[in-house]
Design goal:
The structure is a single chain. With 448 residues, the protein is α/β, with parallel strands linked by helices. It folds into 2 domains: 271 residues, FAD/NAD(P)-binding domain (3-Layer(bba) Sandwich); 89 residues. The protein is 31% helix and 25% strand. The protein has 13 helices and 19 strands. It has an 8-stranded mixed β-sheet, sandwiched between helices. Strand 13 and strand 14 form a beta hairpin. The radius of gyration is 22 Å and the shape is globular. The chain binds flavin-adenine dinucleotide. Flavin-adenine dinucleotide (FAD) binds next to helix 1, strand 3, strand 8, strand 12 and helix 9.
Length: 448
């Protein structure tokens, strides 16, 4: 192709949702001078308690997007270890020494999602970074989508205005629409309706930010996966000034939120070191969730694409959700960039849709379910001897260099779409993007 004669085959992309995936996609596109409009339903960025840790594959995308220095500055300085504990007696069963990677630029990122998206948003609206190419519009509630292949246009129908105002209907058009609008995605529903294949877990996730001096007093640090049939979850240091995140799944079914919260002192007494009473800790913020593992039938219908939670969701044990979201949009950005710069044809978007869905179903879905089962279903008194993953960690703990390379290696959930540029690999393929034996097998899906 004559590059000088090349004029971009599209002008603008609509991104629905100013969550981590939407903002990250906009930033990666702006690096290559591709304009986007980001439509956010709410008047603000999300402040709910959700993700806090993002594995090495996501960190590599943060570095590429120029976000990593600001993320590191906002994060806690050290994250020394991740361990698995038996709740019944607090015994630490096994741990991964994260200090072996503390000097690695691409080590796991630890930051509350709310803080992370604030930084992403600042980057988007910074004229030196977003280059004025990212138009973030709040109070834009997308209600439907449409497209016309002949004119090569796609659009969203939007209700514009704050909740307490009369909403003004609007139609906004571009060349492509990308749904980054989370688990209850209006874009996905406009394509596939309310149903999406998968399962909802029979528990309620209770997530809170907690101040409790007993963690340090009892020598707790880093991340602590808690194994028990009634009291399972993750307790981790997450912020400055002694801020910890306590996440547990309550196995009771069908209670009201108030009833779930009334059971919290029982869970805390069992799970927190020192078995504290409510007057010994302070809870700053709480959010409750139903949790699902689900994946949509296709990530692409014509000129409308889906990415991240809008396309797939998984339970949070092991921190796969946002990490996979980042890999989706990192890959999708490369596909749009290849197309925009004349290095790839439109078929590369089909490749994106196939590869990222295959990876979710083959690796992310299965591993996140294993992680969940490990904390809630295994026998905490025998799991150390029976769990294959713990066996791998035990072996790695004997050799620091091996542990380091294991923690930093390329993951089977990563995929480089630039290999399809300039016809290097055919688009529409590969038939099995996840088949490479060197990339298969057990991985730390903290990734663990
Ligand atoms: C308790 C919990 C803990 C988690 N922990 C981790 C973790 O440690 N690590 C990890 O990697 N992942 C974790 N996750 C998953 C992670 O939070 C999600 O995968 C991630 O937030 C997905 O990002 P997203 O941008 O796809 O969607 P979202 O973060 O949901 O953002 C979607 C955005 O779209 C907007 N929107 C929705 N509908 C519309 C509409 N109709 N019109 C316009 N805008 C709309 C929303 O307001 C929102 O701003 C956790 C999840 C939970 C629930």
């Amino acid at each position: 192709m004559d590059r000088k004669a090349h004029s971009p085959p599209f002008q603008k992309i609509i991104i629905v949702g100013a969550g981590p995936s939407g903002l990250l996609l906009a930033l990666l596109l702006a690096q290559h001078n591709i304009p986007s409009i980001v439509l956010e339903a709410w008047p603000w960025l999300d402040t709910r308690l959700r993700a806090t840790q993002y594995g090495v594959p996501a960190t590599r995308i943060f570095r590429r997007a120029g976000l990593l220095p600001d993320f590191r500055a906002a994060s806690i300085p050290k994250f020394p270890a991740i361990c698995w504990r038996r709740v019944a007696d607090g015994e630490k069963l096994i741990e991964i020494d994260m200090s072996v990677v503390e000097d690695e630029e691409d080590r796991m990122t630890v930051l509350q999602l709310g803080e992370m998206i604030q930084i992403m948003y600042k980057h988007c609206i910074d004229p030196n970074i977003g280059k004025g190419l990212i138009d973030v519009r709040f109070n834009h509630w997308v209600t439907g989508t449409g497209q016309d292949e002949q004119s090569k246009r796609a659009w969203v129908d939007v209700e514009v205005g704050r909740n307490d105002e009369e909403k003004i209907p609007q139609r906004i058009e571009a060349d492509y629409v990308v749904g980054c609008d989370g688990a209850s995605s209006a874009v996905r529903r406009s394509l596939f309706g309310k149903e999406w294949p998968g399962q909802t877990w029979d528990c309620r996730f209770v997530v809170q930010n907690v101040f409790y001096d007993g963690f340090e007093k009892h020598g707790w640090e880093g991340g602590n996966y808690c194994i028990d049939h009634d009291h399972w979850g993750l307790i981790a240091r997450r912020g400055h000034g002694g801020l910890w995140r306590v996440t547990y799944g309550d196995p009771a079914v069908g209670l009201t939120d108030e009833e779930y919260l009334a059971r919290r002192p029982w869970h805390f007494k069992a799970m927190l070191p020192g078995n504290p009473e409510p007057d010994q800790y302070r809870i700053e913020q709480t959010n409750l969730y139903n949790i699902h593992n689900r994946c949509v039938e296709s990530f692409k219908v014509g000129r409308i694409l889906l990415a991240a939670d809008a396309a797939h969701v998984c339970n949070p044990m092991g921190g796969y959700g946002c990490m996979t979201a980042c890999l989706d949009v990192g890959g999708l950005a490369d596909c749009f960039i290849g197309l925009y710069e004349g290095k790839a044809g439109e078929e590369i978007l089909e490749t994106y849709a196939k590869v990222r869905r295959d990876i979710f179903l083959k690796y992310v879905d299965a591993r996140s379910i294993k992680n969940l089962d490990r904390v809630r279903k295994t026998d905490p008194w025998t799991v150390l001897g029976t769990d294959k993953f713990f066996g791998v960690i035990r072996d790695l703990n004997k050799n620091k260099a091996a542990l380091k390379s294991f923690l930093m290696k390329e993951s089977s959930i990563e995929y480089d779409f630039t290999q399809h540029y300039d016809g290097r690999l055919p688009n529409g393929g590969p038939t099995d993007s996840t088949a490479s034996p060197s990339r298969a097998g057990i991985e730390v899906g903290l990734e663990a």
